[in-house]
Amino acid sequence: MHLVPRLGSGIPLVARTQEMRRLRAAFARAERGEAGAVLIAGDAGVGKTRLLTALGEHVAGCGGLVLTGRCIDVRDGGLPYLPFAEALAPLGSSADPAVSAAVRARSALGMLLPQGGDPRPAATGDHGQVSEGEREGVRRVRPEQDLGQLQLFDAVLGVLTEVGQEQPVVVLLEDLHWADSSTRNLLSFLLSRLRAQRLLVVGSYREEDVHRRHPLRGLLSELVRLNTVEQVALAPFGPADARAFVAALAEEPLSPDVVADIAERSEGNPFFVEELLATGADCQDLPAGLAEVLLARLERFPAETRRVLRVISVANESVSHAALAQVAGIGDLELDEALREAVQHHVLVIEGGFYTFRHALLQEAVYADLLPGERTRMHAGYAARIKSMPQGRGHDAKLAFHSLESRDFDTALAALLRAADEAEKLGAPGAALRHIEQAQSIWDAVAPENRPDGVNELKLLSEASYFAGTSGEPERAVAYARSATEALNPDASPEHAAKVWRRLAETLLTLEGTFDEAVRAIERAWELVAEREPSGARAWVLASRAGFQRLRDQPDEALSSAHTAVADARAVGAVGAEASALVTLGTLADSAGDAGEARERLREAEQKAHDAGALNVEIRAMYFLALSYDDQAEMDLALAHAARGVARAEETGLTWSTYGLELRARLLYLRYLSGDWPKEDAAGRARRGVSSAVAARILANWVLFLVGRGRFADAAKALPGLRQQWMADLQIAMAAGDAAIELAAWRGEHSEALRITDELVLWLEKAESALLGGIRIVALAIPSAVALAAEARAKGDQAAADGFVAVGRRLLAHGRRCAAEGHPRSGTMGPEGRAWLARMEAAASALEGLADPDLWAAAAEAFSYGAVYEQAVCRWRQGEALLAAGRAGAAEALEAAHSVAVKLDAVPLRDAVRDVAHRARVELSGVEAVPARPQLNPLTDRERDVLERVALGRTNRQVGEELYISEKTVSVHLSRVMAKLGASRRAEAVAIAYDRGLLTVPE
User: Fold this and answer.
1) Which of 192, 384, 667, 846 sits in a 20 to 30 Å window from 727, CA-based?
2) Average pLDDT of the chain?
């Protein structure tokens, strides 16, 4: 992995705007003669040096003098005045006569600033040490013992004051937690006498190292009382900023899971981020260098303190005093002293009476440093204590963890199975899956007689498949289900075998390309119970089989199977199976056009599933109920039911189950249509640990928002990865393909939009999917064919224009074929499909010449069912068409489009509407009236827009990003501008335009 420069050498100050603003404000006051000081506190590696470096760069850029000094960690003896000696050294060798005179006038500085010598060794960095030789090299600048402190202190303050009269001075003092007593005294003197000097003193120290008995602690409490001193607490990055920092630091793209993992493990500490990234793409192992840095802090602690820290590291959680006493095996008094030492030095923190490491990475470092034997013994000690404790939440999971690590597999196996059951009840299928997989890994290590009753490998495989499917890992669910069918014992009962085959069929249904195998699996399950008496297993198989028959477009067979399933289920009291069959009956009613019956069946199914605890069936019923309203474009009710379903899925831990995912994705798309656009990127991210296909299902819908808001760089970054997931889910292809077409069109890359369209149409035809998807694709793409044809006509290339018209006609024909041959889920095309069909026809009306404003008005009206954004796009096009046709009403259409675009922050649409209004001299609400342009202006509006941004110093790429056109198109516009103005360079073109009044000088 390649990294950008390391911290302190160019890494952006992510999320440090507020701190930098305070520092710059303090410097601005110093420039005015209001001296001050800022004390910056923060953990090691949090970015104090980088912040001071940025301040120094700002001060130097403003003409100020920056003097920097650093304290170093010297264990044997002190280094008096070291940071001041280093900071003031440049004054002693300055070529400025005024500075030299100021230094010579203060003889007390002579010993602090020896001639021809660097007062300190080379910089050691934030975490380095110095050698004995280096210490001796520093000691030679120690002042004579008889040098009075007051004389020296006055000399330092005087020279800084006098130099400040020529230029403002900023003194940066780093790592004050290592400062000796002489340095602390000089610092106290200096800060207490800050008045009207043009001087700012900024010091940094590690908060974690300044414990209660640290000598700097008392000084800080005194200094902060001074009116001229302020404190800045430099905290680690928050989660969002930490993720942004990780992404910025890594040159190669990282998956969202890796980015989130590094951000979480680093706890927002920039130095930790950098070190974790250095380990490679997976970033799982703690880097040796980082471990050494972390462990170095503990070397000075007494042996008992280090022992207690090792015991806490094994717990992997917060630990009580009683647990530590039992596992560590030391007396209460010794334990108290050891804990007090660690707490005072900010290694441990107390949370609710329990002890835990302040940094999780420090816990990792301590744990990794354990010997194998002591690690095993300590885990065994924790396991023994947990066994003696009463049962409670998490009891079995903790016992399983420590038993596994201490190699007590007999205890671990039973505890893992109990922990999996608890996790399922708590709605945590991901945790349940991990427990089951761990149980599988030690199954063979446990003697048969020591295994829990009623558990075998087939049961473990079946449960693993179920938990994988409900936690967002469908591929693993299928793999486990297949293994379960292979592990079936020939002596297994038909009902049990049918359950295993039914499970395989349902898991296969979640993947693309496995439908035929799924059909074979459900038919195999049916063969096993077809001739059996009614039973719960038979009812479940029938209910599932009915669903498959509906998907195979066999409504009569599906209806028969569903009714039989209901009868069987009621005969044996299998309420969950009955609810599953009722869901299928509801969807069949929807397909038959009877929405009333469909919703009645689905509500009944939801209630029965809820009462029976059949959670997946309940979520499935809620999904199809929301879809029923969605099909009829009853937007408010569709949104309400989708949101209710998402909430229920989250409540039961089924967020990433098959229908939990579908509900979440559908709700996101409904919010896009209705204009309820989320501002947080978290809305477009799946949780960590789900499969890439599941994550892509959500991201594909989120990219529509990114494009709509003009976040083209973010959208372009996401689309290639989504393209790789087209085969995983049809809905990924549809949403991501639509977003890609719109992105290319907004950028003016119309040929690319048509290329993506052809690729998507071909892919959908192979997938045998049509209707709404195909119509929408064509409706989005035809305007690009229109634009290319118009451009070709403007160039006088009629042949090319005819070719693009032919492309548009071909797309139109495809869209009409989709409308004629498609099979809507509800039997007839719904309002959304009809709206896209109207938009397709309106777009195609411009292929031969001017667009038909009446068709665009009809399209806008068709989207009035609640598709706010799409309706606004149609109003924009309607306004354009009305203006081109010389008809009235354009202002109203553009105003309607503009108000929606502003509300949604839909930047590309907003700017497109404003561009039309600008050219037509139409005033829009909230937009200043367009001043009259000079007559005989040879530049087009677009050329003038480009030149205005060039005049502001923008590069071609930046101009393209602001105007939503390609960099190449910007270059073409500039070439035309220079040709029209007779200029040979960009700057010359700008100058000529100003001279001729073609551009207005900005105020």
Assistant:
1) 667
2) 85
941-995 fold = Arc Repressor Mutant, subunit A (1.10.10)
Q: CB-based burial of residue 141 (10 Å sphere; 0-12 exposed, 13-18 middle, 19+ buried)?
A: buried
Which of these, 460, 526, 528, lies nearest to 493 by C-alpha position? Answer: 528
CA distance 80 to 43: 24
What gap in Å lies between CA 587 and CA 554, rounded to an integer?
A: 13
The 10s digit of each residue's pLDDT in 344-368 is: 888 898 988 899 988 888 888 899 8
Token code pair at residue 856: 């665009």
Q: Are 951 and 999 in contact (CB under 8 A)?
A: yes
What is the DSSP secondary-structure string of 630-646?
HHTT-HHHHHHHHHHHH
The single-letter DSSP state of residue 111 is T
Tokens of residue 702, six digits:
């989120």
Residue type, 44: A
pLDDT in tens, 192-206: 999 999 999 999 998
Q: Which of 897, 809, 908 is nearest to 856 (CA)?
A: 897
Q: Which residue has the tokens 């970033």?
A: 283
Q: Residue holding tokens 């909430």?
A: 647
Asked whether residue 166 carries a pLDDT value surpassing 60, the answer given is yes
- What letter does residue 250 receive in the DSSP assignment? B
- Backbone phi, then psi, for 965, in 5-degree steps? -130, 165
Cα distance between residue 932 and residue 530, in whole Å: 83
Q: Determine the Cα–Cα distance for residues 784 and 808; give it in Å rounded to an integer.
A: 9
CA torsion 295-296-297-299 (nearest 10°) is 90
Cα separation, 769 vs 787, whole angstroms = 28
Quick one: which of 51, 44, 43 has its CA closest to 22? Answer: 51
Q: What is the pLDDT of residues 546-587, one digit of tens each?
A: 999 999 889 999 999 999 999 999 999 999 999 999 999 999
Q: Which amino acid is at 889?
A: G
Q: Which fold has domain 17-233?
A: Rossmann fold (3.40.50)
- Secondary structure class of 231 (helix, strand, coil): strand
Residues of the chain with CATH 1.10.10.10: 941-995
**Domain span(s) for CATH 3.40.50.300 in the chain:** 17-233
What's residue 117's pLDDT? 40
Q: Cα separation of 451 and 443, whole Å?
A: 8
Between CA 41 and CA 48 the distance in angstroms is: 8
Whole-angstrom distance, CA of residue 480 vs CA of residue 936 = 75
Give the C-alpha separation, 554 to 546, whole Å.
Answer: 9
Give the per-residue SS3 of 806-827: HHHHHHHHHHHHHHHHCCCCCC
Q: What is the pTM of this model?
A: 0.72
Q: Which residues pair with 233 in a beta bridge?
A: 41
